[in-house]
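ARCHIVE RECORD
Type: protein–small molecule complex
Small molecule: 2-acetamido-2-deoxy-beta-D-glucopyranose
Source of inputs: curated submission
Record status: active
Notes field left blank by submitter.
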Amino acid sequence: MRLLKQWLFPLFVCLANGQSFDPNNVKSPNQFDPAHVGTNKSSGTTYSNPIMTTNAGDPFMVHHDGWYLFTYSTNDNITLKRSRSLTDNWDTAETKLLFKPDPESGDPWSTDLWAPEIHQIDDRWYIIFSATPDADSPHPLQDAICPFECPAVNHRMFVLESDGSDPWASNYFMKGMLNTFDQFAIDGTYFRYNNQLYHIYSCWEDTYSAWPANLCITHLSSPWNVSSSLTQRRMISVPDEPWEQVPYGRAGRLATNEGPQQLTNPKTGQNFVVYSAARVNTPFYCLGMLELVGDDPMEYQNWRKHRDGCVFHQNPDAEVYGTGHASYTTSPDGTESYVVYHAQTTDDPTPDLYRTVRTQKFTWNEDGTPNFPKALNGPFPVPKGQK
Ligand SMILES: *[C@@H]1O[C@H](CO)[C@@H](O)[C@H](O)[C@H]1NC(C)=O
Ligand SMILES: *[C@@H]1O[C@H](CO)[C@@H](O)[C@H](O)[C@H]1NC(C)=O
Ligand SMILES: *[C@@H]1O[C@H](CO)[C@@H](O)[C@H](O)[C@H]1NC(C)=O
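STRUCTURE (tokenized, with ligand):
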């Protein structure tokens, strides 16, 4: 699908609003000087972004037992990487294949595997990911039911479980589909609150609505078993702000909330869901934020949306665009908070995304909300406690 023609006019309108897009200045996305990728090997005291130059969307990082565990969208399989260091070049980190479906099998999880995450729940590790049986080419008669093209209409959420308590040594087995009522579901994550487990994912209002993409929540009785019915499912965010819509302010098609991720303030215990807004292949893709302000995450009113725009966004001065789908971790000594996100190095909204993995330290505001930095390339001091 060629997006560009439809984009040009509205994007020039955006310039008046201070958003930058110059279609005459498109750069090759994937040329990186190895000396500027990750930890500076000669000093060991600084690092630069990106920390991985492979085309890798939807980075998910967790720190466990002295190791950083990292997974991301490969499209074809579930790949886990690990390193003692958050900022060393992840292109060359140890790699383990966890799951590789046969793309010809027609299994519901067989193609276009997106946004895997790895979570420790009780004594096991769970991989939660999105996939579809049809490589995002639904039958034309099915596609025709949607008001707009809906290539991802058959994407659903799946869960793999480890056979042991060691995330690296374990083998992983399919536990099945997470019930999303046979409706579109991508970017699902676990949300933990008051000893309860929830599934938060990007959803449509009904089977064929296609857009907007919202955030939905259901209650889980186990990491793979949904206990809510469709009528108990709740939407907790819809892309109703102009900065969540592309082109800016146009509701409906391409208005998106996705990539939700729980972020807990380690001091105050406040719970946030930081999500990605706007459209993934544009410079405007950014992070938005919800805060849980009541006791029941299943109530729409208990979520307060940060309405003053993106909390983390593109920085054209540093040639960092489309900053989104983040996860959160800490320095090795646990004292610093880090956001791990993907971004593009071109502001051309090409359908062929090229995303690299990046990380930056962030701090916490007095009111307990996260204070994200400007997206930059560094060099930055390495995380505290990194050897
Ligand atoms: C890496 O460190 C060396 C030695 O301190 C310094 O000369 C060089 O500029 C640094 N490179 C980057 C990309 O920061
Ligand atoms: C997993 O998928 C990626 C993307 O296609 C590919 O580069 C990689 O080689 C695959 N890994 C294995 C072990 O098949
Ligand atoms: C899922 O949970 C329901 C109750 O919420 C229970 O009846 C059912 O047995 C569970 N299924 C599995 C596969 O664990």
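CURATOR ANNOTATION: Residues 1-29 have pLDDT under 50 and may be disordered.
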